[in-house]
Each structure stands twice: as structure tokens, then as C-alpha cells.
Amino acid sequence: MTVSEVLQLESVPPGSTQPGVLPLNHSFDHWLHQHQARAQQLIERFVPPEHPLVPQLHEAMHYAAAMGGKRVRPLLVWAAGECVQADDQALDRAACAVELVHAYSLVHDDLPCMDDDVLRRGQPTTHVRFGEALALLAGDALQALAYEVLTPEADIAPALQARLCALLARASGADGMAGGQTLDILATGGAVSGDDLMHMHSRKTGALLKASVLMGAACGGFDTAHPAQTYTALETYGDAVGLAFQVVDDILDVTADSHTLGKTAGKDAQQNKSTYVSALGLDAARKLAHGLRDKAQAALDTLPPPQRAASQRLRELADLIVLREH
Amino acid sequence: MTVSEVLQLESVPPGSTQPGVLPLNHSFDHWLHQHQARAQQLIERFVPPEHPLVPQLHEAMHYAAAMGGKRVRPLLVWAAGECVQADDQALDRAACAVELVHAYSLVHDDLPCMDDDVLRRGQPTTHVRFGEALALLAGDALQALAYEVLTPEADIAPALQARLCALLARASGADGMAGGQTLDILATGGAVSGDDLMHMHSRKTGALLKASVLMGAACGGFDTAHPAQTYTALETYGDAVGLAFQVVDDILDVTADSHTLGKTAGKDAQQNKSTYVSALGLDAARKLAHGLRDKAQAALDTLPPPQRAASQRLRELADLIVLREH
């Protein structure tokens, strides 16, 4: 996928290139809050703040995982799961596991040797609060915990456990998140094209967001072993929302303030980071985000009828990701 | 398990408390070199140094994983696998995965915010060679890769993949390696008893060594779902060699030189670290190491006859771990 391919998509209606407003939808709003609360409950269950043996480590892990956030990845797991009538117990564990990997990546990204950030979700970052060594170890332990959550004695069929571990590992390692983060660090300061950014972000943030969708689909029995229409549609959807998420992040870094974002605004420019805004300009970046949203939703239109009917939450999440204000 | 329990074991013959010499055994020597070479081949296969997309990250991962070491954890996987007639393909992947987790833990332990070490296996540590950010990311990616190696499309039955992921995750997270490392960091500088050290090291190094034995056993179909005589014996063996390994590490830090060790000798005392030698004295630490070796080998004597006959490599590895000189 290249920037120009997305911008030239015939499916992009002219109106959609303007900044939009998230449509009011009480049913979605209810679903959203219900599932964000469910994410929090799962975090509290699997990452309790108190533990008799190594209390400091558990406190740091809980701090990193429980301090909030939009829970976009768990929401994608659940929405994809609804689309394919997946089992709730497996979905809950998959949703929690991707959020744990996301949380560990934030802790490590914020460390002084990486982005050196002191503010996250309006709170001191984990290393500011607990010291660098504990933050490093808490991140490491959160990554291991994700695989522990995916491999319970009961609750999930063993073959599905293996499939979920495979999807998560591939999305978060050298070919996914860690590889993208490396490209990001190496690119800081140099001029980068929009296509290079897509290449980098499809790994750095896109891979885990896409994996969230695919893990939800896997919980309903859809995976590469069944390369059906459903799988392909959800994969295309996952690719597009994964990229859209980062484009909007870059836009908000320029247009929103630190209070609304809960993290330091304007930091990309300050650090001379290449972003979609610096590479394409603000208008084209907005156009790209809307184009990706439309691409995601067009993919859902190709689902077989029963799943298309059950894809409403995925459709609404694509709106949320592109039209959010923080 | 406490220090005094081990030292009072009736099974400890009087002669075994003296420093020993590894008995010459050409068959074991051949097996050892053959399997160390196999570990290296697997590392080269799963962590190739060259990769077109993010070359720097892959180079750092390869450097960290391939630079040598005794490969004790893979050797334990294979030896336990021989004991239960396990499948070779599963064993190879399990052996590689534990070594990748071990390699990632060394990279992170050596970082300036942790042990701040510049020399490992006679070479500059990963962060000295590649910078802190890349070392951090290489460690993170190696951890993810371990789960990728355990969850191939073919080669291992899905239920076994899930079981191996479960064992590895529990051994390396907050209740295992990362928790033990936290206790170690928090304890530096304070007086610690021998029993506290056992408690800490049973997690820091013991958990992954024990998991290596259990993963080998799992490849032959033995796990907690079949809590048979075989499983219990191998678990006791794993606990004992896991602890013995660290006791001997502490002894060698005092008695060997940096050249032989391939890392900075005398560093524990320099950093005011609590070790078995500082807590118990050199003689009692040696006695403890030998007691643990005897305990490990006594556990193998309780195996059912066909497995007892096939446990020779495990027996010899216990000797190797206690009688090694680096």
C-alpha cells in the first residue's frame, strides 16, 4: 500500500476528506464504555497491583497497564470477535494479551534511551515513577504475561492458544512492532517520504492493531488456515485502521494540546521526527486518514452477509479511530 | 527448599563436598559438542544476522544470541527429551526458544540501568556495540521471537505449542526470571541470608533452567496434566540443577579470572552483591553446590526403569554444571 494508492481510491467520497465529527450513536457509546470497563477489569484480574513476593515489580506492572488509555486494541479484538460469533472467554484473554503487549511497548518506548518521555496519559511515565531498572523489568514481565494469559489450563482450546500466541509474537517482534520502532529511531532527524512512513508504521503500530483484529477473528475460527473471504476482508480492514491510527496520532500531535492528549503535544516536531504531517502536510494527512477509514469500511462491505451484518462495531471503531480528538 | 535442608540430605556422600573434577567421558563429550553445535545452527536459522528490512535490529539480535555461551538450557531440553523419547523437531524449537529468552535477559541485564556491564563472553556487551536503544529493542524482539519459534505452522502439534508457550512464559515473567531479577536489584547492598538467596535465585536463574527440563519432558508428553512419577522426578531435578548453577556462578566469580569466565570476575563483591559465597562462605557454598548435584541425581534414581536408563545425559549435565570451571 502506498500513500498515492490510498488517496486515489475510487471509494473515497469527496466529503470524507474534510475533518469530520464522530456521529452520535448511543448504542455504540454504550458498547464502548462497557468494553473499556471490561478491559480494565481484565487488567485488574491479570495484573493485580499487590503481590506478596515481588511487590515493587507488580506495582510497576499494574501502573503501566492500568493507568488508562483508549483500549483500542482490546476493542478491535472484541469487535472482530462479534463479527464472527467468537467465544467470550477466548476473546477476553486475547483482548487482555494485546493490551499487555501495548503497555509494555509504551513503558520501553518512554525510557531515556528511547523517546525519553516523562508524561503518558497525563501521569508520570513508569520509569519516572519507579526508576529505569524497574520500568525495564516491568515491561519485560508484561510481555511474558501476555503469553501466560493466552495459555491457561482451561478456558481456550489448546490449538487456539497456539494460534493466538503465533499472531501476537509475529506482530510484536522484529517483523512487527519492535522492527517498526527500530526504523522510527533510526529515521529520527532524516527526511522520510510518506511511503517510508507507511512502511515503518505498518510495523510500529499497524502490526499490533491488525493482529488485534486477526486474533478476534481467530477466536471465531478464522485464520490463515481458512483463507476465506472473511479472513481477507478482516485483514484488509486491520491494515487500514492500523495505519489510520498512526496518521491521526501524527495529526493530533500538531492540532491538539497536551492536556487533551494526556501526553506531551508537539513532541514530534520538537524531536525532529518524521510524521505524516511533516511529510505530506496537514491537509493531505487528513485526507489520507479519511481515505484509510473508507478503505477499512469498504473491506467490511465485502464480508459474507451474516458477518457483514455483525460488523457494525468494526465500522464504528474505524470512525472512532479517525475522528477521535485524543 | 532451604540451605540447611540441602546440606543435611542423607544422600550426600562425604566425598562429594570437596571440589571435584569432571570425569572424562568421551561419549558425553561428543554429545555435548554435537548439541552445542546444534544450538548454534538453530540460532543461525532463526536469528539470521542479515535481513533486508531492519538490518540493524537483526544484526544486534544475532550478536546477542549467537556469540556463544555454554548453551546449558538447550542442553537440558535435549537431555530431558532423550529421557522421555521426545520428538526431535519439537525439542529443537523448545531448545532454541529457551536460549532466545536467556539471550534477551542477558542483553537487558547488562544495560547501564541494570548491572551496567561492558563485557560478556569475552566480547563487548550488546549495548556497548549497538547502543542502548537497539540493545533494548533487540532484547524485546528476542523475547517475542521465542514464542514465534514455538508456534510454527507445522513441526509441533498445536496443543504442545500451547504447553511450551505456557511453561516458557511462566518461567520468564514476574513469578520467574523477571521477578528474580527484581529481587536481585532491590537486594544489592543489603545483607541477605542463604535462604533469601535461594528464594531469589530459584526465580532469577532457576526458573528458566527448570523450565528447560520441563519443556523437554513436555515434548515427550509429560506435563502437569500427567503428574506421574516421571514428571515429579524431572521437576525435582530441574529445581536442584537450577539452584546449583547459580551457586557455582557465585563461586566462580570469586575463584576464576575474567579471561576464563569471559566476563568481569570479582564483580559481585565490587558491586556489593549478596552471593552464596558472601552469605555462606566459600566452603559451605561448595558443599551446597555438591549437595544440590546429589539431590538432582537422586531424583533421577526415582524415575521408572526405562526413563532411568535414558537419563544418563541429565546425570552428566548435573556433573557438568557443578564441576565446570567457567
TrEMBL record, chains A, B:
Needed cofactors: Mg(2+)
The EC number(s) this enzyme carries: 2.5.1.1, 2.5.1.10
One Gene Ontology term from the biological process aspect of the record: terpenoid biosynthetic process
Domain of life: Bacteria
Cellular component terms (Gene Ontology): cytoplasm
Assigned keywords, A-Z: Isoprene biosynthesis, Magnesium, Metal-binding, Transferase
Coiled coil: none
Gene3D superfamilies assigned to the protein according to its UniProt record, in alphabetical order: Farnesyl Diphosphate Synthase
GO molecular function term, any single one: (2E,6E)-farnesyl diphosphate synthase activity
Family annotation (CDD domains): Trans_IPPS_HT (cd00685)
Major enzyme class: transferase
NCBIfam families per UniProt: FPPsyn (NF045485)
Homology family: Belongs to the FPP/GGPP synthase family.
UniProt-recorded name of the protein: Geranyltranstransferase
Organism of provenance: Thiomonas arsenitoxydans (strain DSM 22701 / CIP 110005 / 3As)
